[in-house]
From TrEMBL, chain A:
Top-level lineage group: Archaea
2Fe-2S ferredoxin-type domain location: 6-118
GO molecular function: 2 iron, 2 sulfur cluster binding; metal ion binding
Cofactor: [2Fe-2S] cluster
Family of this protein: Belongs to the 2Fe2S plant-type ferredoxin family.
Key words of the record: 2Fe-2S, Electron transport, Iron, Iron-sulfur, Metal-binding, Transport
Protein name from the UniProt record: Ferredoxin
From TrEMBL, chain B:
Superkingdom, taxonomy of origin: Archaea
Family: Belongs to the selenium-binding protein family.
Basic and acidic residues biased stretches: 11-22
Region called Disordered, residue ranges: 1-26
GO molecular function: selenium binding
Extent of Acidic residues compositional bias: 1-10
The name this protein goes by in its record: Selenium-binding protein
Source organism of the structure: Haloterrigena turkmenica (strain ATCC 51198 / DSM 5511 / JCM 9101 / NCIMB 13204 / VKM B-1734 / 4k) (Halococcus turkmenicus)
Amino acid sequence: MVSQRHDVTLEWPDADRETRTIAVDEDETVLEAAERSGIALPFGCRTGACGTCTGRLLEADGAEPTAADDERTVDVDGAFSYRRSPRALKDRHRTAGYVLLCIASPRTDCRLAVGANVHTELVENPWK
Amino acid sequence: MSDVNEPSDVEPDHEHDHHHEGPGYATPQAAIEEGEREELAYVMSLYVGTDVDAPDFVSVVDLDPDSDTYCEIVDRIELPNRGDELHHFGWNACSSSCHMEGLERRHLIVPGQRSSRIHVIDAKDRRNPELETVIEPEEVFEYDLSAPHTVHCIPDGEILISMLGDADGELPGGFLELNDDFEIEGRWEPPGEIEMNYDYWYQPRQNVMVSSEWAAPKTYYPGFDLEDVEAGNYGQRLHFWDWEAGTVEQTIDLGEEGLIPLEVRFLHTPESTHGFVGAALSSNIFHFWRDGESGEYRAEKVIDFESREHDDWDMPVPALPTDILISMDDRYLFGSNWLHGEVWMYDISDPSNPRRADSLSVGGTFGEVQEVQNRELSAGPQMIQLSLDGERLYWTTSLFSSWDEQFYPEEGERGSVMLKADVDPRKGTMELDEDFLVDWGECPEGPARAHEIRWPDGDCTSDVWQ
């Protein structure tokens, strides 16, 4: 049986890069599909521990997050299935729509913020 | 392939009627006297965590002032994969193997901190090293280990690597042993001896090893989060091991003043049981030693760096001493305060009472020097390396890609630099060499970060004597 595919649109915030849409099989990760399409996304451990590949869900199946920064209507856990536990993300990150692209496979069409800048949103300088 | 060219017919002599047959120098003093001035440096260079579509690489830096390419990256060994985060590395052999006839200090073992991939680079041609073997992450995960950190050769030609996590990036960490053909021999220690791991150093003549603690990979990989400090997810312990048995004999909890004990160094003299560890988050340096009467190790805070107020920061800025090293003659302890922007040297002739000798204020949040040769510095001094004769101190500026992004976001845009100070060990002074600058901002694929530094023929942070 051929597995289902979903259109995943990749956008690089604050970077001068063109938005790209790739078809991702339900049994492959977003990172694998990007590599197959010749698109470089940041990554590190590929086991869900390091967060280098973090993306942020912008829209899933037509539903956009609400205007409030921390309150999103998009259900990130419904939009992606994880191969293993996303250890690099804390609960607050998952609630805010962050996704580990090295272990996440889509379950719906969606739009993602990607690139190194997204990973840096996970933690801030605690003294500043 | 092995670096042991012929079977040795010289029995290792642990009683030290020392036959010097193999790599390295017979004593630390011999390293000072016989070692030549460093003309090349190998430096870990990385793109992981950026959008630059290129693998990390090992830089070969020209340090010969008489060369036309002085201060330039003259060769780059590109690795086959992206995403490694090159961090720390080491030689297949050091002075601890100097009884091993036929063994050469020839292969660099270069782990990927994030990928858990281990590269073996043949550096027989010192200016043009070549990648020889790659141990893939899956082979490492089979031993339920990940996140390779410190590499030391161990005295019989084998290689030991501290591993900070299990195969999932959680605790416990442990140690991975490679044989002299660069194949995984297995776990060096019985699993479960420690929870957290980071750096280690061994003193074989005293049958002791000491290891320190960072955190689980899943904790420190994404970046530094105060929530993790409050939850007790960062380390504060030192572990003292029976070196031959590979078992922990004693654990010292350094307490809140010893949070995140990173680089740990014994004195070079093989008889010594004294050493130092930098507690990065608490900004303290601890001295440790074996108490002669009880035979147990003790640890005491001997240097305390105060946080400093800064107009642009909400809270006092901690110093964050992220690297320390001991000069080959065991007289000085050098270190770097990455956040404050300071390189310092302490006289440790009396290791219980370090005396501040000198410091340089450069880069970082408070550095008096914020540019060299009109090149703006993006971060504070980080990994340091000292010449064998103790007269030249070099440093790079990147700590760890995700932590750099938090504290010095410009580092990723501008790249790292390598700087140098001239040291007068007799007077105990340092002076910034403003003619010296190596710039990773000008790499062909884009600005890169630079981390640990090694010399081709041994250095103050990798050589151990048996």
